[in-house]
Design brief:
The complex is a heterodimer of chains A (384) and B (315).
Chain A: H1 4-9, E1 12-16, H2 23-36, E2 40-45, H3 51-55, E3 66-68, E4 79-84, H4 87-98, H5 102-109, H6 112-117, H7 124-138, E5 144-148, H8 157-168, H9 171-178, H10 186-190, H11 195-206, H12 208-220, H13 225-240, E6 244-250, H14 254-269, E7 274-282, H15 292-303, H16 310-338, E8 349-354, H17 363-373
Parallel strand pairs in A: 1-5, 1-6, 2-4, 2-5, 6-7, 7-8
Antiparallel strand pairs in A: 3-4
Chain B: H1 3-7, E1 11-16, H2 22-35, E2 40-45, H3 53-56, E3 65-66, E4 71-76, H4 78-89, H5 93-101, H6 105-111, H7 115-130, E5 133-137, H8 141-157, H9 162-175, E6 179-185, H10 189-205, E7 213-219, H11 226-238, H12 245-274, E8 279-282, H13 294-314
Parallel strand pairs in B: 1-5, 1-6, 2-4, 2-5, 6-7, 7-8
Antiparallel strand pairs in B: 3-4
The chains are: A alpha/beta (384), B alpha/beta (315).
Chain lengths: 384, 315
Amino acid sequence: MSLAPLLQSKSLIICVGSGGVGKTTTAAALALRAAVLGRKALVLTIDPARRLANSLGLKRFGNDETRIDLSHLPDAKGELWAMMLDQQKTFDDLISRLSPDESRRQGILNNKVYRATADNISGSQDYMATEKLYDVVLSRRYDLVVLDTPPVKNALDFLEAPGRLARFLDQRVMKWFLEPYDESRVFGRLLMGTSAVVFRLLGFVFGKEFLTDLSEYFHQFRDLYDGFRERHEAVLKLFHSPATAFLVVGAPNEPSLEVAGFFLDELHQRGMGGAGVVVNQRHRVSGAPLDPKVLLGEAAAGAAADLPPPTAARLLARLGAAHRRLRELSAAESILVDGLRPHLRPGQSVWSVPRFEADVHDLAALDRIGAFLCAPPERVIGRG
Amino acid sequence: MNVTHLLQSRLLLVTGKGGTGKTTLSAALARLLADRGKRVCIVEIDSYRPALTAPLGVVPGYHPVSAGPRLDACNIVWRDALMEWLADTVPAERVVRALLTNKVVQPFLEATPGLRETVVLSKVLKLVDAYDVVVVDMPASGHTISLLGVPRVAVSLMRTGPIRERALAILDRLHRPDTALVIVALPEEMVVNEAVELWERLQKEVPGLRAPLVALNRAAPPSLSADETALLARLAAATPDTATPAGELVLAGRWEAGLEASTADALARLEAAFGAPPVSFARLGALGGFEGGPGRIVQQLAAALARQELAERSA
């Protein structure tokens, strides 16, 4: 199956995979292709290195949805929008939306712990991505949202992100901190009973002042939990929805395709819909060994008439070596891609995108990639 | 920072964009130093599936496992690091157990901002005390910034207590002259951008960090003469269809020429951004050396590091 029907029918496509494999570029190319096919598509990226901005030829964009000018692609029937996640702003917006009143909002936004951590704690990136996702998908402003996920150390971090904040806001923790909340009494109550030893210890470990700051932080969040929980449940539902497809993105090297296989298995186990794998940066050759002297000898001799005599012979030798290398590379990559076979389930495919001579950073190049993604998938040898 | 200085350091932090070869370079550095008689521990952080397994042939656990003479490998899982840190910090074992089995404390510890990073780095510090050299295969750019930025945040948030003290010790370690940062890049425009941005952000998050050694992996050194390049361009113009055998040959040549050009470009940009030329490592084999087994590329890279050191000394 080509990816085109997916682009036509799904409302959310999530690109996952290890770092450095072209996830951002793939996500942008898919959104562009969907726009060409007539849909209103948004590509959402979380990447702190602002790679998508490069891909789209934009200098910079914030948390705002930016419409990309497609006027020089006359075939484009839909719209392409792009957004780069701004973590701090996403969290601030979320707090503003969920806060019952202005003083609470200010209380949280000015809290020392909140300010120090909202932007710089690992995992918050994954969480903010899902948070923004909830926003844009459920707003129904777009026909299709393509999400580029953050590079993860642990491949599962992203899929588990919605649960993490829920745990963070676990009711038991909150109760423990908040029920007795009264600035003067918070320590009093905690110093009684079974919690006493634990709390004294935490005070020793973190310093009493920090614990007080943290209590206040949790206290400020007290009415927001239900809102958080609801949103998380909605995002999890979104991950499992038949209108959502996960696309695993990889590069043709051993570690990256190992992660891709692992992702396919995990998605299957979680009952999430995986469409297959996009393998970027493939090197393709026709297969046969080629003799430069036979194929290009005459042409080279003719073209090198004004150059020193050994130039043509040297270049032909280099072309032969370069082509041998390319054939080896191509063969080795095919073996690696075939290794995905045991991880593919019925209906899942592999799409290969060749490596381009230059980095991809304009719409024309993204469009070329989109064309490969919408071509028939690669036949993976031995697949049943 | 050069390779000579790097090989004399006690704590080596290897970072860069995902897929640039951080793990392989870390393994090569660790092997080389162990071969020279140092007791080395190579570390990865919170890996669900340890990446060091491929280049070293062992599965690193939380407790270091042997990966050869004088070389140990470990994977610092933050929960184990937390337990160890608590055991070191809190006098009574009974109390630590009470703390860790308490249903309220569990999610609290998970939710406490910065705790994860602090205990992980704290374990790295302990390893530095236990070994001659510690090589850390750091997480990719974004997570490296979070990890190294946390001690400063912790110090600003906590006025007292052992975490603050530990965070201060970590900051001190990061600033010592025998702590070295390595940023790994590839000759690709976006990878170079990320290396430059990573360093800009690290300077903000961890002021005073010493300038890194930049390693350019998979470099293609120039091989075509100006005449050959000119002839290649003419042949390309004459055989525009890359689907023909002649066109495919020309494409192979242009592909090589492109790699050489992007290598030259990356070297120039990295030198301009970091104020010193990067160290480059030529690409090895068809798949960057994987076809010879990941262990082999580690050996080749270690040899390249030693050659580079020799070149620096004779220069």
